[in-house]
Design goal:
CATH topology: Pnp Oxidase, Chain A
Number of strands: 7
Helix content: 25-40%
CATH class: Mainly Beta
CATH architecture: Roll
CATH superfamily: Electron Transport, Fmn-binding Protein, Chain A
Number of domains: 1
Order of helices and strands: HEEEEHEEHHE
Structural class: alpha+beta
Distance between the termini: 19 Å
Strand order of the largest sheet: 2-1-5-6-7-4-3
Amino acid sequence: MHHTVANYPFPQEFIDYLASHTLAGVKGGKDGHRFLDIWMVEVNGRVFARSWSKSNRSWFTAFKEEGIGQLKFGDKIIPVAGKPLADSQTNSLIDQAYKEKYTQAHNLVYVNGITQPEYHEYTMEFFYDA
């Protein structure tokens, strides 16, 4: 049963939060128990994240199976839909966004990893579900 994806713009305060914070919370599916802090990037008003672990039981697979979840920033929580992204042109822009955002020395090894082509199929696009 897939959730219809409406395309509302994200609240500006969420976009601002992403610009100034390296981590945001994600919870996939209806029954996710807790938020996991992950890297998230914004590209042209669209919001993306990649599954670092590529594991079978993760926020990523919950979004793939159920299509919905929540994002948390500060003490605010917003409902979102999520869809895996297959578009290679957009994936290249996401690689670039990761490289521009996560420049801290301790993050460079992870940036190098998460921008490899095999991570493209672990890219989720979030849609604000107002």
